[in-house]
Recover the amino acids of this structure.
């Protein structure tokens, strides 16, 4: 069994609250939300970090951003605001080594983050 927790969610081996899914991408709620809306946008392909992206991944990353605009509309966040962010390695606070983007909204978010 794949030990990567996000691959396990992709394979439906562990549950998640999924808001969107297609052949390349899955979006589910973070298990420990830090905002009223805290989603994780996860390419299904196991890409460990942002630095492992290759040219062949460019389409799925563009697609991921387009799906984020769709969900933002559905969640009533257009005009109000939200944040998409990815964490890379230790200083960035990356805990899960399967590339993902946090989508945060539903409250004013501080900038810069801590
Ligand atoms: P990172 O620090 O790697 O950018 O963030 C990983 C995120 O994944 C954290 O916000 C954490 O709460 C979330 N997370 C960790 N394990 C699980 C899980 O099993 N299910 C879900 N839905 N989220 C998880
Ligand atoms: Zn994985």
């Amino acid at each position: 069994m794949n030990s990567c927790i996000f691959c396990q969610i992709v394979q439906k081996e562990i549950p998640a609250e999924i808001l969107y899914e297609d052949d390349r991408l899955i979006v589910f709620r973070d298990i420990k939300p830090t905002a009223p809306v805290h989603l994780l946008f996860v390419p299904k392909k196991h890409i460990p970090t942002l630095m492992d992206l290759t040219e062949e991944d460019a389409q799925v990353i563009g697609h991921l951003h387009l799906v984020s605009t769709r969900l933002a509309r559905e969640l009533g966040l257009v005009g109000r605001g939200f944040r998409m962010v990815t964490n890379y390695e230790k200083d960035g606070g990356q805990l899960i080594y399967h590339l993902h983007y946090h989508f945060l909204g539903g409250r004013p978010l501080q900038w810069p983050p801590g």
